[in-house]
C-alpha cells in the first residue's frame, strides 16, 4: 500500500509516496477527506456526511453529491477498486482505515502535546524531553486547522471552529512555554520568535507581550522593549478596551528604570579551575532526576577522585535557570567538627545565630517558600551531622538538595546516583585500528579521531596540554594514552595526576610506570582540592573513615583482580581479626563508602575495586604483613574452584562452568602469577594450571597459559606427585599443539603417556594417546598415528565411554579425509556425530562437523558444507572458542572460492590470518597445501591489486563482522 501523508494545520496538503497530490477537484472533496481522517477508525454514516457538507440540499441530492465527491477523493488518492485502500466504504458508512500506511500532522501534534501534559516533572521548562516534544509540536503547527478553507455549510463551519479552537489553545500553550524556556536559558532570539508567534495569532495576548518585552530588554534592546509596551497598550485599548495588567505595568517600569532583575537567578557556584569535559549523558540524567516530582534529595556517590564535585557543580550551573531563588554551594570537605555543619550552610545564605532561636530553625525559616537548589559537597565524614540538617530543610522548606558523598545519608526519600568513571578506550579495538592505519592499502580510520571520542582521553589530553602546551594526541602516542586511561579506570583525579607528569615523562613512560601508579602519582596537582593534592591523600581520606574491621577487609580485597563474589570474599578475607560471618556487613560498609562497587552478573551480585584503589589497598596489605598469607589463600580458593569446574578428559565442561570460569578469569590469572612468586605456593599453582586446559581450549587461549604450566612444572620438579605431573604435561601438550608447536606437543604428550602407563590411569591414557596420534596425523605421518588411534579407541570401548569413541572416530575420519578416502571419512564422521551427547559434546561435535563439511565441499555438496560449517561456527562463537573459529573462517574461505566468490574468500582468509595472529596460532601443516592453492587461485582470479585490497579489508574486519561475512550466502 502507498504511503499517505496529510497536513491539515495551515493549508491543506496531501502527498502519496512523496508526490504532491493536486487532483482534488473541489473544496468538498478536500474537506471530506479531512473530516474522515480526523475521525479515523470511526465509520461515519453517509447521511451524517451528507447533512454535514450539503445541509441545504435534499437528502437524495446530498447523498448523490457525496457519492460524486467520494469518487473524486478516491481518484485523487489513486485508489483502485478491490485493492487495499485508505477508505473503507460500505453502502451505509465511510471510514478512514487506521490500518493503512498514513501520517496526519494533527495526530502528531496532539500526541506531543498530550505527552507533555502527562509527563511527571517539577518544572516544565527544566524537562528536556518535554521541551523537545513542544518544539516538534510547534514546528508542526503551520497555522489554524484547514486554514483558508471555507464551505457554505453552517454545521461544517461550527464543527471546524470548535476543532480549530482546541488546537489553537494547545499551540498557544506550547509557544508560551517555549518562550519561557528560551528566556531562562538566555536564548533571546528564540524567545522572541515564540512570543511573536503567539502575538501573530492573538495580538491581545498580554503574557506574550511580557515575554517579548523581557526578551528584548535582556538582549540589550531597551528601546524596543519599551516600544513593545506601547504597542501592547494600544492593542489592548483598541481590541478589548482595557488597560495592561499590573504585572505588565511593573515590568515596563523596571525596564524604563533599568532595574530589571538579571535574567539568570543568583548563585555562588565557584568558577571551574579547569575545563569541564564530557559527561553529557550524566548531566542529563541528573537534570531529569532533579526535575522528578518525588526527588527532593539527590546524593551523588562514588570513590574519591571520580568527579562527584565537578559533576555536581556542572549540574548546578545548568540548573541555575530553573531555580528562581538560585543555586547555592556549600563545601563541607574541610570540616572536622560536625557542630560546624549548620553554621557553614547558614553562612551561605547570610543567616546568623541570634537570640535564643536555634540556628537550624532560623535557617529553615529563611528558606521556606523559596525555589532553590542547595549543593552540599563532601559529606561522607559528617553524615551524622548532615542527616538531621537535610531532614529539617526537607520538612520545613521547599528547597531541593544535591549531595556529594562517598556514602549515602540514609534519609527517607533520598535518591542515590552512583557517579561512574569516564569512558575508557577499548585497547584491542584501538590496536586493530593502529595496525590498519599502518597498512599501505587501503588507509584505515583516523585513530586519533576515534581516541578523542572518549571522555577519559579528552580529560588527560586537556590536563596534559595545560602542563605542556606543546602536547597533542598523535598516532604515535595514541595507544599509550589509551593505556593510561584504561589502567586508571577513567578516574578523573587519577588522570589529572598522571597528566601532571607529562613534562617529565612521555605517555609511553607514564603508561609503563602505571604498574606502580601510587609510586608515580605522588606529586600534587595545583588545580585539585586540598585533600586531592595527591592520589595517596585522596585514598587516605577514604581509608580513615573505615572501622577497624572494614580496614581489614578492604586491604585483603586487594588480592582480587577484576570482580569477585561474596563467597570468595568470605573465604579469603575472613579470619584473623574479621570473622567470616562479618564479611557481608563490612563489605556493605565499603560499598556504602564508595570504596567497592557492585555490579550485577546474571542473577548474582559481584563486587569490584577500581584498579587504583586496589593498588592502594595492596600497600595497606603489605604494611599489615598479610600479603603472603592472603594471596596464598586466594590461590587456594581459585584452585578449588577450578578443580570443581574442571570437566571431562575430552574437553567438555560442566553446565555453566565456562561462564563461571570466564567470570573469574582475572582472579585465576592473578592466582597463577602469584604461584610463580617466591612466596607463592607452586604446588597449588600447578594444580590450578592443570585444572584449566579444558577452559583454555574452549576459550582459545594458549600462550601465557602454556607458559604457566611449563614454569610451574620446572618450579615444582619432583616435589609434584606423578599424577599431577602427568596431568600438567598433558595440559602443556594441548597448549603447545594449539599454538602449532607440534614438536613440543609431541614431547609433552609422550611424557604424559609414559607416566600414565606406569600409573595405569586408563581414562587419561586413552585421551592422551588420541592427542598424540592427532599430532602425527596433522603432520601427515599417518602410519605412526594409526596404532595410537587404535589403542586409544580400544581403551575407550573397554571403558564404555561413547564420547571418547566418538572423538577418536572423528579423528580417524579426518585422517581418511586427508588421505583422500572421502567415502570412509564420511562414514566415520557420521558415525561419530551419532555418538556425541548434546549439549556436553558441542565442542567436539563442532570439530567433527568442520571435517565433514570439508568432505561435503570436496564432493561438491556446497549447501551441505555451508550448513555444517554454520552450525560449527555458531556453536564455537557461543563457546568463545577463537581457535576453532580460526579454522572455520579458513574453511568458509575455501567454500566461497569453490562457489565462485574469490573476493569473499580472500576477505575471510585475511580475517582468519588476523585472528590467528591475535591468539598465537597458525594452520597445521596438513592444512597448508590447500590454503596455498586457494590463495594462488584467488590471486589469479582477482589480480594483484584487487587481491591486496580484499586481503586488507578482511584483516580490518572485527571478529563479529568476519563471522557474519562467513554466514552470508550469495
Residue-averaged pLDDT: 88
The helix tally amounts to 46
Termini, distance in Å? 30 Å
Q: If strands are numbered along the chain, what order do they take across the biggest sheet? A: 9-10-11-8-12
Strand content: 5-15%
Helix content: 55-70%
Largest β sheet strand count, sense and barrel closure: 5 strands, parallel
Alpha carbon gyration radius: 38 Å
Structural class of the secondary structure composition?
alpha/beta
Spans of at least 5 consecutive residues with low confidence: 440-444
Counting DSSP E segments of at least 2 residues, the number of strands comes to 15
Q: Given the C-alpha coordinates, what overall shape results? A: flat
Outline the structure in words:
The protein is of the alpha/beta class and 970 residues long. Helix content is 61%, strand content 6%. The strands form 4 sheets. A 5-stranded parallel beta sheet has the order 9-10-11-8-12, sandwiched between helices. A 4-stranded mixed beta sheet has the order 3-2-1-7. Strands 4-6-5 form a 3-stranded antiparallel beta sheet. Strand 2 and strand 3 form a beta hairpin. The protein is flat, with a radius of gyration of 38 Å. The protein starts with a strand and ends with a helix. Residues 440-444 have low confidence and may be disordered.
Strand and helix layout:
Layout: E1 4-7, E2 13-16, E3 19-20, H1 27-38, E4 44-45, H2 46-53, H3 59-77, E5 87-89, E6 93-96, E7 102-104, H4 105-118, H5 128-140, H6 154-184, H7 188-201, H8 206-218, H9 222-240, H10 246-257, H11 280-290, E8 297-301, H12 308-319, E9 327-331, H13 341-348, H14 359-367, E10 373-377, H15 383-396, E11 400-404, E12 414-418, H16 427-438, H17 447-452, H18 455-467, H19 478-487, H20 492-499, H21 507-513, H22 517-520, H23 535-544, H24 548-556, E13 563-564, H25 566-573, H26 583-592, E14 597-601, E15 604-608, H27 611-623, H28 627-644, H29 657-663, H30 665-675, H31 682-690, H32 693-699, H33 703-716, H34 722-738, H35 742-759, H36 762-778, H37 782-799, H38 802-818, H39 822-835, H40 842-858, H41 862-879, H42 882-898, H43 902-919, H44 928-942, H45 944-956, H46 959-967
Parallel strand pairs: 1-7, 8-11, 8-12, 9-10, 10-11
Antiparallel strand pairs: 1-2, 2-3, 4-6, 5-6, 13-15, 14-15
Amino acid at each position: 500500500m502507498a504511503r499517505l501523508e496529510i497536513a491539515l494545520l495551515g493549508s491543506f496538503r496531501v502527498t502519496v509516496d512523496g508526490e504532491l497530490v493536486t487532483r482534488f477537484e473541489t473544496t468538498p472533496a478536500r474537506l471530506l477527506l479531512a473530516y474522515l481522517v480526523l475521525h479515523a477508525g470511526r465509520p461515519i454514516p453517509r447521511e451524517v456526511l451528507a447533512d454535514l457538507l450539503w445541509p441545504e440540499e435534499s437528502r437524495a441530492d446530498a447523498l448523490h453529491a457525496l457519492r460524486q465527491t467520494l469518487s473524486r477523493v478516491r481518484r485523487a488518492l489513486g485508489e483502485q477498486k478491490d485493492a487495499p485502500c485508505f477508505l473503507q466504504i460500505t453502502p451505509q458508512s465511510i471510514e478512514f482505515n487506521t490500518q493503512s500506511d498514513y501520517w496526519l500532522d494533527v495526530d502528531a501534534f496532539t500526541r506531543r502535546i498530550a505527552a507533555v501534559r502527562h509527563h511527571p516533572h517539577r518544572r516544565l521548562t527544566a524537562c528536556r524531553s518535554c521541551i523537545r516534544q513542544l518544539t516538534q509540536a510547534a514546528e508542526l503547527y503551520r497555522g489554524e486547522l484547514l486554514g483558508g478553507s471555507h464551505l457554505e455549510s453552517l454545521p461544517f463551519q461550527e464543527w471546524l471552529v470548535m476543532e480549530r479552537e482546541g488546537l489553537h489553545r494547545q499551540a498557544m500553550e506550547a509557544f508560551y512555554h517555549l518562550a519561557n524556556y528560551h528566556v531562562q536559558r538566555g536564548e533571546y532570539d528564540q524567545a522572541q520568535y515564540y512570543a511573536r508567534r503567539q502575538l501573530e495569532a492573538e495580538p491581545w495576548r498580554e503574557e506574550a507581550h511580557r515575554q517579548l518585552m523581557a526578551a528584548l530588554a535582556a538582549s540589550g534592546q531597551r528601546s524596543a522593549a519599551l516600544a513593545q509596551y506601547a504597542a501592547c497598550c494600544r492593542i489592548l485599548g483598541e481590541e478589548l478596551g482595557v488597560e495592561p495588567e499590573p504585572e505588565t505595568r511593573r515590568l515596563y517600569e523596571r525596564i524604563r528604570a533599568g532595574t530589571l532583575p538579571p535574567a539568570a537567578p543568583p548563585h555562588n557556584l565557584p568558577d571551574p579551575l579547569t575545563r569541564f569535559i564530557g559527561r553529557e549523558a550524566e548531566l542529563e540524567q541528573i537534570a531529569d532526576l532533579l526535575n522528578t516530582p518525588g526527588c527532593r534529595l539527590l546524593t551523588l556517590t562514588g570513590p574519591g577522585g571520580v568527579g562527584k564535585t565537578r559533576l555536581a557543580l556542572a549540574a548546578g550551573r545548568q540548573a541555575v535557570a530553573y531555580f528562581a531563588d538560585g543555586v547555592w554551594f556549600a563545601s563541607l570537605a574541610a570540616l572536622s567538627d560536625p557542630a560546624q555543619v549548620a553554621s557553614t550552610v547558614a553562612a551561605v545564605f547570610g543567616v546568623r545565630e541570634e537570640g535564643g532561636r536555634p540556628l537550624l530553625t532560623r535557617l529553615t525559616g529563611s528558606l521556606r517558600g523559596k525555589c532553590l537548589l542547595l549543593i552540599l559537597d563532601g559529606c561522607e565524614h559528617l553524615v551524622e551531622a548532615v542527616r538531621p540538617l537535610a531532614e529539617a530543610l526537607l520538612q520545613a522548606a521547599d528547597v531541593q538538595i544535591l549531595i556529594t558523598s562517598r556514602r549515602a545519608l540514609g534519609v527517607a526519600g533520598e535518591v542515590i546516583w552512583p557517579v561512574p568513571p569516564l569512558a575508557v578506550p577499548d585497547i584491542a579495538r584501538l590496536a586493530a585500528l593502529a595496525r590498519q592505519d599502518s597498512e599501505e592499502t587501503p588507509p584505515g580510520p583516523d585513530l586519533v579521531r576515534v581516541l578523542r571520542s572518549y571522555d577519559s582521553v579528552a580529560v588527560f589530553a586537556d590536563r596534559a596540554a595545560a602542563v605542556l602546551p606543546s602536547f597533542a594526541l598523535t598516532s604515535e602516542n595514541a595507544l599509550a594514552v589509551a593505556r593510561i586511561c584504561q589502567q586508571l579506570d577513567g578516574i578523573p583525579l587519577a588522570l589529572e595526576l598522571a597528566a601532571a607528569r607529562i613534562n617529565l615523562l612521555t605517555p609511553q613512560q607514564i603508561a609503563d610506570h602505571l604498574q606502580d601508579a601510587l609510586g608515580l602519582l605522588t606529586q600534587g596537582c595545583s588545580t585539585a582540592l586540598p585533600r586531592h593534592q595527591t592520589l595517596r591523600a585522596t585514598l587516605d581520606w577514604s581509608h580513615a573513615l573505615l572501622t577497624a574491621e572494614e580496614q581489614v577487609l578492604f586491604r585483603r580485597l586487594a588480592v582480587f583482580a577484576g570482580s569477585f563474589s561474596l563467597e570468595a570474599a568470605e573465604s579469603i578475607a575472613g579470619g584473623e581479626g574479621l570473622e567470616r560471618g562479618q564479611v557481608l556487613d563490612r563489605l556493605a560498609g565499603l560499598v556504602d563508602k564508595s570504596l567497592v562497587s557492585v555490579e550485577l552478573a546474571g542473577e548474582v551480585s559481584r563486587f569490584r575495586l577500581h584498579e587504583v584503589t586496589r593498588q592502594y589497598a595492596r600497600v595497606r596489605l603489605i604494611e599489615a604483613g598479610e600479603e603472603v598469607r592472603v594471596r596464598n589463600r586466594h590461590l587456594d580458593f581459585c584452585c578449588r574452584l577450578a578443580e570443581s569446574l574442571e570437566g571431562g578428559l575430552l574437553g567438555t565442561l560442566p553446565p555453566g562452568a565456562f561462564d563461571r570460569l570466564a567470570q573469574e578469569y582475572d582472579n585465576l590469572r592473578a592466582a597463577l602469577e602469584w604461584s610463580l612468586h617466591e612466596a607463592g605456593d607452586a604446588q597449588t599453582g600447578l594444580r590450578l594450571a592443570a585444572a584449566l586446559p579444558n577452559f583454555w581450549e574452549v576459550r582459545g587461549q594458549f600462550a601465557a597459559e602454556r607458559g604457566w604450566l611449563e614454569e610451574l612444572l620446572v618450579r615444582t620438579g619432583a616435589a609434584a606427585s606423578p599424577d599431577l605431573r602427568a596431568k600438567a604435561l598433558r595440559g602443556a601438550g594441548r597448549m603447545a599443539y594449539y599454538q602449532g608447536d607440534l614438536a613440543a606437543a609431541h614431547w609433552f604428550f609422550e611424557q604424559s603417556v609414559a607416566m600414565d602407563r606406569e600409573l595405569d590411569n586408563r581414562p587419561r591414557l586413552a585421551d592422551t594417546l588420541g592427542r598424540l596420534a592427532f599430532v602425527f596425523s596433522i603432520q601427515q605421518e599417518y602410519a605412526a598415528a594409526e596404532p595410537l588411534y587404535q589403542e586409544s579407541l580400544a581403551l575407550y570401548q573397554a571403558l564404555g565411554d561413547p564420547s571418547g569413541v566418538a572423538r577418536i572416530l572423528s579423528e580417524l575420519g579426518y585422517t581418511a579425509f586427508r588421505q583422500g578416502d572421502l567415502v570412509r571419512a564420511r562414514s566415520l564422521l557420521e558415525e561419530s556425530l551419532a555418538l556425541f551427547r548434546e549439549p556436553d559434546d558441542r565442542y567436539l561435535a563442532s570439530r567433527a562437523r568442520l571435517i565433514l563439511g570439508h568432505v561435503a565441499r570436496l564432493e561438491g555438496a556446497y549447501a551441505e558444507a555451508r550448513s555444517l560449517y554454520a552450525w560449527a561456527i555458531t556453536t564455537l562463537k557461543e563457546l568463545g572458542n577463537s581457535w576453532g573459529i580460526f579454522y572455520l573462517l579458513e574453511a568458509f574461505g575455501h567454500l566461497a572460492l569453490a562457489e565462485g566468490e574469490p573476493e569473499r574468500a580472500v576477505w575471510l582468509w585475511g580475517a582468519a590470518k588476523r585472528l590467528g595472529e591475535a591468539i598465537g596460532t597458525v594452520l597445521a601443516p596438513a592444512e597448508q597445501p590447500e590454503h596455498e592453492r586457494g590463495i594462488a587461485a584467488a590471486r589469479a582470479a582477482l589480480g594483484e591489486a584487487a587481491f591486496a585490497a580484499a586481503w586488507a579489508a578482511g584483516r580490518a574486519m572485527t571478529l563479529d563482522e568476519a563471522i557474519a561475512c562467513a554466514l552470508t550466502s550469495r
